[in-house]
Amino acid sequence: MAPSYGGEHRAPHEPWREQLQDADGGIREAAHEVQRPVFYAIAIIITAYLPIFTLQRVEGRLFHPMAWTVAFALLGALVFSMLVAPVLSSMLFRKGVIEWRNPVMEFLKTRYRDAVRWAIEHRLLQRGGAFWVSYRHLSHGRWSYWL
Question: Per-residue b/e over 41-80, b at no fewer than 16 CB within 10 Å?
């Protein structure tokens, strides 16, 4: 009898199916993870363009086409990111993806973590530096005195 994975029965001579399901599951999980933030980000940008639609006369004639273009482009990007990109990903990455660790990025991440850890451990020094810069800026009105 074939082993059962999530209620589905698979033949033992099809090991690629488990890998395929893992790749599809990862793509599905990634798509669900970014779905809500992408939707709200695009909705906020489109909402910011709504006042342009209230313009009248020359201003309205000038800016209405731009606002419509941006709104439709963002809606197209939303449809692509929600519907087309996950389907294309599942078709292109059928065998899964082997993640490659970029050594430059790893170096930068470790340096960044060390810098953030140092900044957290030396909070008073950070606050003192911020206070000093603010004081110098406000007391002299320009930065040229100490640059």
Answer: ebeeebeebeebeeeeeeeeeeeeeebeeebeebeeebee
Spell out the residues 6+ positions from residue 93 whose beta carbon is closer than 8 angstroms to its own: 23, 27
> Tokens representing 143?
């930065």
- The winner for highest mean pLDDT among 27-31, 57-61, 120-124, 140-144 is 120-124
DSSP state of 141: S
* Confidence (pTM): 0.52
Is residue 113 classed exposed, middle or buried when 0-12, 13-18 and 19+ CB atoms within 10 A define those classes? exposed
Q: CA-CA-CA-CA torsion for 62, 64, 68, 70, nearest 10 degrees?
A: 50
Least Cα distance to 70 among 84, 54, 43, 49 occurs for: 49
Query: Tell me, what amino acid is at 137?
Result: H
Distances from the Cα of 140 to the Cα of 95, 124, 130, 146, angstroms: 63, 24, 16, 10
Residue 72: DSSP 8-state: H
pLDDT of residue 60: 85
Sole residue written with tokens 């020094």:
125
CA 102 → CA 106, 115, 116, distances in Å? 6, 20, 21
